[in-house]
Amino acid sequence: MDYFIFNVDSYPVLPGKIHYYRGVTYRACDYENYFKRNPKVWFRASEPDKWTDSTVVTFTNYEAKSFIKTNSHPMIHHISNKGKLAALISGEYYQPRTFQFSIVATHKGNREQKIKIIGWNPGLNTLWFIKKVADLTYGGFDVFPIIYRGDMDQTIKEIQDIVAKSNQVKKYYSSDFLIQEGILNPLLISIPTSSGLRKYDIRAYGLLVKAGEYSQFEYYFFKKYLIRKSLQLYNPDSTDPAVMLTNTTQAKELRAELTELGSYESFPVEFDKIYQVYVDLCQNRLQPLERTFIMYPNPTITIIGLDFILDSDYHPYLLEINKSPTIHCDETLRTRFHHGLEELMFADDFFDLTFEAFIETESRHYSTENWLHVPHSWTD
Fold first, then answer.
1. Residue 235 belongs to domain with CATH number
2. Which of 80, 277, 303, 335 lies 20 to 30 angstroms, CA to CA, from 207?
3. Are residues 241 and 333 both part of a single domain?
């Protein structure tokens, strides 16, 4: 017999026979062992007479070869949308200057398009990144660096060409874009196997847990993070994506060994500043926003990826939030690109904060070995 963790009509697991979401079933991910070691936790909501030593524990997910991510809650779609996030954190000290714009047809039936970026007044030789406004993007392949050289008409034409090319050859069409200022004097990093310095960013992880229909979200921050380096040496005058972009997907596509696990105990970055951004984001932005979506009925687990870049003064900037950070359960990819990060991310304390909280219908308000809890602002 197969025993499914979520969303199988004949074996509902969550209290009240709540089903999560429909998805692909597959085996052999590491945290499967937790449920094998703790079967009694699940007897209350399943059929214990059918549980035997030969039971195969499986689970559901919409994306093959990834760990559990339940992105069905509408707030998650909201904060992972680049445009909505930009509006949500507008004016915060950790937001790079960001402007949104839309493409407009010059007249009906004409494919020519024009853009106007209201309020955009770039400085000479400043770096900017054009991004599609969406809540799901594809590994940086829809991010385009440009440098303003002083000719606004020429720059607008360049942006129009980028927009048209992006919509024509990339994975999805978008009429809405944003342009985000690049960080002056980004903090750089060396690679032991080569000379020179590279640009890098930090992929941090947040865990959002909603134990039931009437419960608040609880917010946690993972204590380790990924360092993601550019594929080529840094050159401030370049617009080459290999120089200016840092993401795991590009590294995988080029079979590059340029992503490694860092930790706040050892990596020489003022990590507390990044954590404080997450605390500020949760308490001042996400908790008030949460009330808009409070009646969503299902329990929710969401791991979000928060992409930060730091300048040479260690000032952190939040570039975007990803609702589906790639967290592989394939051992080869995990070893190469995450260096065992999942072994810590999905240790037993993860299950205490999530599935066991669901069974007990009681949110966890404490930090664990691997996850820092963010208190609600009204309890500070």
1. 3.30.470.20
2. 335
3. yes
